């Protein structure tokens, strides 16, 4: 269910990035008359669950943005589920299921691209909305907050999970210790790591279809299909990295070593590859190969920024992830705004170069900071007040 939840979440987020290719007129930087909004402002809007084809700009923006408000709760909630359900030696597998978002992206791009070309961009949003409704029904009957609340799990499985967690995870509710959290250096280092990862990720999610379609020279259908390949690779590599991390854990490798070693793959290597994209110019095979490799090795994020909240404070992993995602999520509009500023005077490789270089540097610098100063030690404030009293 973790995998399916993140899949659906990103179908709603990613559809705008491919539909925008049809919604805007690149030469003038304006969208079609239905929207009457500036190009880069439309690009930064997250995916829709529904759309109203209206000539009222306020309606268009409202129906785009408001469905994203509950989406922001998804990943923090899943971090809470993982903390309660996952034995420490298997957290890599559980966290790797967050890569369902990647499948959501790589399916949405060609699907929405084909539907947009066939019957118009509005129908791309309706198709996504239909699959969200199906997911909601499945989740209602299958999911549970914890092993104790699940109807189908056996007592043996419950005991195994509880014993493996060693009393570090509590079901009791408590207010997160925000003061201690915000004065914790490991928390802020994780923030930096996550921010750098999302910068590079949003750069590729929001701008890769546009770059491939308008600069490299593929049409819309090619953009949807080829641009999905890096994300599909990221999903499979993420699932593989999760198992590799669990294997390393069972072999006795220190958690700190695992996190910092795999930052080389989740951040350093992708950053180098992004910097190289504009320098290969209009060679589609090489551009796609760089994107595929960059996204593939970035799948190691399941062992770094996506799993570090579980290291620092499993009882408050949801709160931690919610905060770092809020801060990192600002890249969702910062990246398109910066890209728009660079390509405002022409959609050329020269103007795109700085967007890719900055993205690569954000990857590399945030990774190096974590390697030097990051921590995997469980923080003292992970212990809830109720546990202290007991």
UniProtKB/TrEMBL annotation:
Query: Which terms does the UniProt entry file under GO BP?
Result: monoatomic anion transport
Among SUPFAM superfamilies, the record links this protein to: MFS general substrate transporter
Source superkingdom? Eukaryota
| Membrane-topology descriptor | Multi-pass membrane protein
Q: Which InterPro entries match?
A: MFS (IPR011701), MFS_Na/Anion_cotransporter (IPR050382), MFS_trans_sf (IPR036259)
What GO cellular component entries does it have?
membrane
**Pfam families found in the cross-reference section:** MFS_1 (PF07690)
What protein am I looking at? Inorganic phosphate cotransporter
Q: Which organism is it from?
A: Acanthoscelides obtectus
Lineage at the top is:
Eukaryota, Metazoa, Ecdysozoa, Arthropoda, Hexapoda
